[in-house]
Amino acid sequence: MIEMIRFPGVRTMMKGGYLLATVTASSSFHLNVLQRATAFSPTRITHYSSRIRHHDTTRAYLSTTQLYEQKQKHIVLVGGGHAHLQVIKAFNQASLSRLANADWSVTVTVIDQSDRASYSGMVPGCIANTYTKEETEISLTDLTEWAGIDFIHGRVVDIDFEAQEIRLEAHGDECGSTNDENDSSKTIVNYDVLSLDIGSTARGLEIPGVLDYTLPTRPIDALVRRLDEASDALKENTNVFLKGDDDDNNNEKIKIVVVGAGAAGLELAMVLRERFDPIVQGLGRELEVTVLNSGSTSNLLPDENIFCRMALQDALDRRNVRFVNGRVNCVNQDEVVVEVEQEKDGEMQLCSLPFTICCWAAGAHPHSLSFRLGDSGVALSDRGWIRVGPTLQTVSYDNVFAAGDCSQIEGLGSEESPPKAGVYAVRAGPVLVENICKYLKEEELVDYDPQSDFLKIMNCGDGTAIGFRFGLPLVGKWVFDLKDDIDVMFMDLFRLENLSSLNDKTNDDDRDGSIHVAQYDDAIIRQIDRIDALEAANILARSDDGVDYQEAWIALREMVADEDYKREVLKCFKKLNR
Ligand SMILES: Cc1cc2nc3c(=O)[nH]c(=O)nc-3n(C[C@H](O)[C@H](O)[C@H](O)COP(=O)(O)OP(=O)(O)OC[C@H]3O[C@@H](n4cnc5c(N)ncnc54)[C@H](O)[C@@H]3O)c2cc1C
User: Fold this and answer.
1) Is 282 found in the same domain as 393?
2) What pLDDT digit, counting tens, does each position of 469-504 carry?
3) Which residue, among 43, 46, 37, has the nearest Cα to 7 in the 3D structure?
4) Is residue 102 located within the same domain as residue 184?
């Protein structure tokens, strides 16, 4: 039995990232107890202090058994991104009490520099005005509060892996604090088990002018905000975008340049066309959308087969997206300076690519924090990703896990580490949950077995989408409807209104006390009724509005589950397209 003690008069709250305790004279004794028990000081939060709920400003509850008899194991999750969302939900107070045993109990703290997690799969839809910004985000404050675990809104600047200490700059402290990473005023959080899900940043940000004049895709919430500002500026006809007021300039095209011809850049080009076309037409101007491809081949998405690439090219042509091949030399206020290879002699020449708005979608690159952690002792790949094994434990420290974009998985047999895509981060979540629990219980950990390929869908911005799976091009409204269903279903898992109260003793998934390690869509997979292979091929080959996306989804799921069925559908598909 856990005996709860109430400390009357002790007021606690998070302020500027510090846990503040306001104490009346009558309760100074209790503060003393509190201080000794938690080693609490204004700049130091130990794992004990996480028992004090920061959102409860009037009462502090401490568990005597936990503080004085049991050891507390502190799990810290750095980053509340795609990989950690399911971990946060799984490690709620109800399930954590099950994980605890007579010797130890568990507390969990989430640290993120943003208080909202952006779901990138829906961001292009937000740019195309299909979703609101709120629909693409999860409030980490709400989710952690629901789970009854702590949330620190702050930026991790370093980790001492030997001392098991995380050094962070709390939100709002950035202005006041020094740049000295060793500054002792920075907040320290201790951990027993650490999991890193810090995502990635955009490649090439160091190229002169990129940070000054372009809109990078990372952080993704900043991209949406800055595109909103750009739209407003255009609508208001401010001369930030419409330079000059003579006739010549007024007839100039509005030019959007997207740097990067990967899936994210191409999707962005299509949804930007959808978003800005009406605005630009309203100004009586013409919109030009250009993608700058710096790849070694002029083929778009060279890893896809010719059929998929042709379907993609068709989708881009229909939206009048043009291409330029070359490498960025620098970016000036209104032009990208590009090194272009001359056809006649192979010489490189500098060319100007003028823009009104330039989006930077040049692929994923490790955060500077990743390199910092490398200096602090965690092993990194050549490119700077955190090296982990199939259990998602770092190769350097058994009690440090990493998942999602920031990690590179080694030892997957013949498979390489999966690409930097949200789908792999999401699928790593339940494995993290299971392995962190097993690590604490000193059991054998399980391996993450990432799928070798995944359903890639690009939103075209007009209610249709283009996707690729098993080498099949999938096109039409049904492809967007399918994407919408998958994305909304995932987000719904974390919406406060869909989460049942953990205090309610009625038995259901969130309250039964067990820790959930299943993939979020497992339940749906079990509901599948197979469709005949020829019928499945027929559905997948269609692009008209009459296709029922649910049937297409059933077909695709079954193709994943059953190799023979997949072969049969692909055979039928080939015949249909002869
Ligand atoms: C425009 C665009 C569209 C995309 N569309 C898709 C798609 O449709 N499907 C798909 O599979 N993938 C897509 N991706 C890729 C996908 O976004 C990433 O693979 C995914 O976000 C990786 O998730 P993650 O959990 O690794 O990191 P994230 O979800 O990015 O989370 C990282 C978290 O760490 C926090 N953080 C970072 N540094 C610190 C720090 N120092 N201290 C504290 N917190 C920190 C961040 O605030 C963030 O909340 C897209 C990417 C872009 C740019």
Assistant:
1) no
2) 999 999 999 999 999 999 999 999 999 988 887 776
3) 37
4) yes
User: Which domain, by its residues, includes 500?
Assistant: 456-576
> Within this chain, do residues 226 and 347 fall inside the same structural domain, yes or no?
yes
- Same-domain status, 444 and 561: no
* pLDDT tens per residue, range 356-410: 999 999 999 999 999 999 999 999 999 999 999 999 999 999 999 999 999 999 9
In a domain, 480, yes or no: yes
Which of 109, 224, 405 to probe ligand 1 with, by most ligand atoms within 8 A of CB?
405
How many Å lie between the centroid of ligand 1 and the Cα of residue 218? 8
Q: Final residue of a domain: which of 428, 451, 474?
A: 451
Q: How many CB atoms lie within 10 A of CB 231?
A: 17
Are 345 and 221 within one domain? yes
Helical residues (DSSP H) of 236-284, grouped into ranges: 247-250, 263-282
Amino acid at 369: L
Looking at this protein, which amino acid is placed at residue 232? D
Please report the ipTM that was assigned to this predicted complex: 0.98
**Ligand 1 site: residues with CB under 6 angstroms?**
78-83, 111-114, 117, 120-121, 123-124, 155-156, 197-199, 217, 220, 264, 268, 367, 369, 404-406, 420-423, 425
Residues in CB range of 31: below 8 A, 6 or more apart = 7, 10, 21, 23
Are 335 and 409 members of one domain? Answer: no
Domain end position, chosen among 339, 364, 389: 364
